[in-house]
Amino acid sequence: MVQYAVAQKDGDWTVFKDGEPVAGGLSRSAAVQMAQDLAFEAEARGEVVELLTQGYYGELSRRLTGSADG
User: Fold this and answer.
1) Which of 10, 24, 27, 34 has the fewest Cβ atoms surrounding its Cβ within 10 A?
2) What are the pLDDT digits (tens) for 23-58?
3) What's the CA gap between 14 and 22, in Å, rounded?
């Protein structure tokens, strides 16, 4: 399984992969789009994907996609 997350860090939005930052200094919409694109690519490779997205007020949404069968 691969995990992508979008969270606010130091006032900017950052995309994380498995807990490590991969891009920062983004607008929230750009960060969400990047994370969705990365998740789509991972799903296409047959990976199970967990996508976590922080909202403007700190709420967290979670989406689990893909198939363990590959």
Assistant:
1) 10
2) 999 999 999 999 999 999 999 999 999 999 999 898
3) 8
